[in-house]
Every structure is written in structure tokens, then in C-alpha cells.
Amino acid sequence: MDFPPITRVVTGHDADGRAVLAEVGPLPHVTRIDAIPGTVFHEIWATEGAPAPVGNTADPTLGPLMLPPPRHGTRIRIVDIPPDTEDFLRQGASRMQDAFTQIGDAAASTVAEDSPHPLMHRTESVDYGVVLAGECTLVLDRGEVLLKPGHVVVQRGTNHAWANRSGAMCRMLFVLVDGAYLPGIGPGA
Asked: Domains of the chain, with CATH numbers?
């Protein structure tokens, strides 16, 4: 399944403070993940700080790809997730360092010999994941759930992976919110 390209509409303010269309067009930052063929990150926007600065700020997606949100900020992206293949499941763990390095957070990968999936990872954030098309399985250390269009995941800094066992592409929308682990929850706790 080929997904349609994403059109981003960004609003702004003119010199008189009136609402204007600052941009309407394709996303300027779309990245194919080399170590996981078929995986595509579509970067939509990010904010830094809380409260988020409201105004005519520069496009925050033009820098390097980063998995986590900015400190005290947010990130919104769409990810196209290809079906898992036997080759990927067999050799995926050896390629994960390259994959997570390309997406800007090598330390996020938690894959180990006994991991339930080669894409196991963890970030110090609260993430909202919405299945837009296709199917995907949320894999945790203990347990998993099949996700279909309209399902929403509230992912609270847990070790997890997105496994596509459907044989067709899956497209998910993610909103990531910077977080801080409570005592006893973070890595090594």
C-alpha cells in the first residue's frame, strides 16, 4: 500500500498581527531509515519549552532527525512502518544501533538477546500513537496488543516496539511530549 504524500499547513501572523497562511505544501523533512527498509519518518513540527512559544518561529523540522522531543517540548510526526520480514527479525538486532543513530537517539535502543522484538526501545516521554492506516502490534516486555485504524496508544516511557505482522504497510501518527521518569520507573530502577 502506497500512502499519499503529506501536506503541511502552517499558520502565522502578518505585520498587523492577523492570521495568515505561512506555508502550504509538502513536508520539508522526510527521512527513509536505511537500516529498516520501508520505514519513513515524516517530520511535521516540534516545540521547545513550556509554554510553547507562539509566533512566527523558524521551521523546527529542518535540523537533524531526532527521535525524542526537545527538552520541555513536543514533536509530531507520521511514521510509515513496513511489515516485519524473516530477515529483519533474524538480523534486526544487529542493525538497530545504526537505525537509532540515524533517528537521532542511539541510546534509545534497548534490544538484547532475549528481547521480544529487535526494535525494542525506550524514551523519557509520553507518546500518543494513532493508527491511521494498516495494522501494527504494540510489543511490551510483558504483553502485546494488535492495533487497527482508530486505535490510540498512550505510551508512558515504557520499553516497547512497533511490530508490523500484517503483511501490509502501517501508517501511524505520533505526538511525543518530553517527560521525566518518576522514582523507581526509569532505566536501572
From this structure: 29-178 (2.60.120.10)
